[in-house]
Amino acid sequence: MTNTRTLSGKDIHNLVLIEQATIDSEHLEGDTLRARLDLIGNIMQENVVRLQLDEEINHLLTFARCTGCETLSQAVKEKHYPSGCWGAEPRRHYQPNFLLKIEGKSRPSSIVYSLEKQKIGMAMIILAHMKWDPRYAKGAKKMLHYIDENNLWTVADGEYLFA
């Protein structure tokens, strides 16, 4: 039995709600902007739970990268993801396989962040990709600025990712 899984855009539920929340954010401030950010994080977390993905932060951020790509127009996808949203990146030689939980638990070796940090991290990565698409650029940039301004994800949060 394998404890990994490849995914595609068909596996993601409520992607349209992420897109709409990003568009809506263009005109929002403060608590209502935070509510849209939380909605995106919650949708991603619901997908993680439903798909039984290991909560290892690298896998969650890769999952968010692939999901963010799914929101992009075909022209933007072709420019930034020539091998497809769920295919290998130029620096990789394989399609991302996502670790699954074993008996409902992440692996002991997995680096698991708090639920709040998982949601913020996934939302941040999705928005970082959505900002390339003119339909979402203003809302995505506004939420990314909100994340930075409120220190919701700091250099220290991602420090080990680049070690």
What does this molecule look like?
This protein has 163 residues and is mostly helical. The protein has one domain. The chain has 7 helices and 2 strands, in the order E-H-H-H-H-E-H-H-H. It has helices at residues 15-25, 30-51, 57-70, 74-80, 115-130, 137-149, 155-158; strands at residues 4-5, 98-99. Strands 1-2 form a two-stranded antiparallel sheet. The radius of gyration is 15 Å and the shape is globular. The model has no long low-confidence stretch (mean pLDDT 90).
Overall shape = globular
How can the largest sheet be summarized?
A: 2 strands, antiparallel
- Mean pLDDT, nearest integer? 90
Order of helices and strands: EHHHHEHHH
Low-confidence stretches: none
Q: In terms of structural class, how would the helical and strand content be classed?
A: mainly alpha
Total count of helical runs of at least 4 residues: 7
Radius of gyration: 15 Å
User: Numbering strands along the chain, what is their spatial order in the largest sheet?
Assistant: 1-2
Helix coverage percent of residues? 40-55%
How far is the N terminus from the C terminus? 32 Å
* β-strand amount: under 5%
Q: What is the number of domains?
A: 1
Number of strands: 2
